[in-house]
Amino acid sequence: MQVQVLQHVPFEGLGSIEAWLSERGAAVHTTRFYQSPVLLPDPRSIDLVIVMGGPMSVNDEREYPWLKQEKAFVKEAADRGTAVLGVCLGAQMIASALGARVFANAHKEIGWFPVQAVSTDADVFRFLPQTTVFHWHGETFDLPPEAVHLASSAGCRNQAFQIGRRVIGLQFHLETTPETAHQLIRHCRDELVAGEYIQSEQVLRAVSDAAYRGINRLMNEVLAYITRDRTTANP
Fold it and tell me: Dihedral sign, CA of 218, 104, 84, 147?
């Protein structure tokens, strides 16, 4: 399985996804947009695209000119039927690439908060009725055309969506491990201010390993769902 990771900052990496890919012998290639030059492969050679998070906005094309190139790549991959997973900024990237609006949410959402499944469609990924997941975002998106709404939360209506059987966008982070949470806190500590949906650093650091294992298992299920006929491909 050929995998292309789109990474926007060095402190938001694959987390638990790395082990899942390694167990399947995937050939993993990473485009690091914070380095130059930016090189993207032919989407026809890729089985899975993983678009990671980052503190910038998908609307910041003047400051980050590579955003246009990334959006074009994501759109071509999705249009071709390639499996595409977007996490946080990555979900916003998919939405923007497919013509939807990305904008500031009414609340920043940072910490462990529940999301509720909203879709009853039998032909989409089925989240638990309610599960607590890790969030770190200040923007949200309208659903792209033909997207199925998968999950919502009290602080943010559009938490997850699916397009076809290959594309899933997650506003929240299921890949987070204790180490990747530490990196986010370290690099984005200034965002931990008082807010209805912002937990303190003390609360974030007190989360049990079992909570991380739970969301990581759910991430494995998402990955298996969008790659279910690709994981046996030759690496």
Answer: positive
Beta strand pairing call for 102-117 and 130-141: antiparallel
pTM confidence score:
0.95
Residues of the chain with pLDDT under 50: 232-235
In a domain, 235, yes or no: no
> How far is the CA of 151 from the CAs of 161, 164, 169, in angstroms?
7, 16, 10
Q: Which of 188, 187, 147 is nearest to 170 (CA)?
A: 147
Give the structural domain span for 154: 2-226
Residues 17-40: pLDDT tens digits?
999 999 999 999 999 999 988 889
Q: And the tokens for 56? A: 């910038």
CATH of residue 84's domain is 3.40.50.880
Considering just the CA atoms, what is the radius of gyration of the chain in Å? 16
